[in-house]
Structure formats: structure tokens, C-alpha cells
Amino acid sequence: MIRKEDVYRIGQLAKPHGIKGEIAFNFTDDIFDRVDECDYLVCLMDGIMVPFFIEEYRFKSDTVALVKFEGVDTAEQARKFTNIEVYFPTKFAEESDELSWSYFVGFRIIDEQLGDLGEVEMVDESTINTLFVVNRPNGEELLIPAQEAFITDMDHKLRTITMNLPEGMVG
Predict the structure, then answer these.
(1) Which H/E stretch holds residue 32?
(2) Residues 33 and 90 in one domain
(3) Is the separation of the CB atoms in 133 and 123 below 8 Å?
(4) Domain assignment present for 60
(5) pLDDT tens digits for 14-42?
(6) Is 22 part of any domain?
(7) Is residue 170 part of a domain?
């Protein structure tokens, strides 16, 4: 059984493409293309993490791929995947040294001086400086620079990132 803590979200399936079972896949991380050891994606189907083996895929743009899963051969079968969240196994990403910033969604940020700052809700890569968008326990949103220079430790099992942030960066 695949547990949610063993995978991380890399996108969402959209709608069928054509009549042969291809599905448009809006991805935020192209790890599935960079890691050869993993030939499947995990889909959240009715609350259960289910692996689906990739028969083939091709890129439509830099954020959309057309994916064909084994056993999904018609548009009708592909329609069942519309709006389904897609995940990738963390073990393959960690082993490959191909981690992207979106891998860290769900990690807790611990500052060496201030302690637990909250959980990474999303990663904003829309500007030159990548930011962790952290949801603080009090509901406040915090933007933290996702820079390796500030990261002092990382625990993949506990899903924590320990950082030494400059004084005054966090209010």
C-alpha cells in the first residue's frame, strides 16, 4: 500500500487527449522525466494512492505532458482520470539527487533561533528568488527564501528543513 507520506504531489491530470487513452498532465515537477528507475506515477483515486505504469508520454509544453497509462486505451477510460492529483515516489527522487523545490511541499521549516515556523504549503518559483510559502500555526502566511545557503539540515524521514535565517527576516 502506498502511503501519502511516501509520495509528493507533482501535478494534476486534466482531460483526455484524442481517442487512444492519452491524458493531459499539468505538472509542476518533471521528475518523472528525469528519473529512469521509476516507470509509474501515483494517482489519488477515491482517497487511495494507486500506481499506474506509464506506457509512453510526450511533452506538449514545458508544463503539460500527454501521458498514456498501461491499460487505458480509450477516451472513455481516460475520462475517469480527469482532475486526479498525481504524485511521485519520494524514494526515487531522493536516490537520484534530482530533487526539485516542489519536493519540499509538506516539509516543516525549523529556524535555529525561532523554532517551528510552519509547513511549506507551496513553492513560488515565479520570480528569480524561489520562495517557500509557509502556513504558520496561527494561520499567517510566511514567505521564506528557498536558498541552500540558509539550509543547515534536512531530514527526509521527519520531513523537516532546519534553517538559519538572518535576524529580522521572520517577523
Answers:
(1) helix 31-34
(2) yes
(3) yes
(4) yes
(5) 999 999 999 999 998 888 998 888 899 99
(6) yes
(7) no
Sheet holding 141-145, edge to edge: 141-145, 131-135, 115-124, 108-111, 160-163, 151-155
Task: Determine if the pTM surpasses 0.90.
Answer: no
Q: What is the DSSP letter of 3?
A: -
For 111-168, the pLDDT digits (tens) are: 999 899 999 998 888 888 889 999 887 888 999 999 889 999 988 888 899 999 998 8
Contacts of 163 (CB under 8 A, 6+ apart): 109, 110, 111, 112, 144, 150, 151, 152
Its domain, for residue 87, covers 4-95
Spell out the SS3 assignment of 127-160.
Answer: CCCCEEEEECCCCCEEEEECCHHHEEEEECCCCE
Can you read off the three cell numbers belonging to residue 140?
499567517
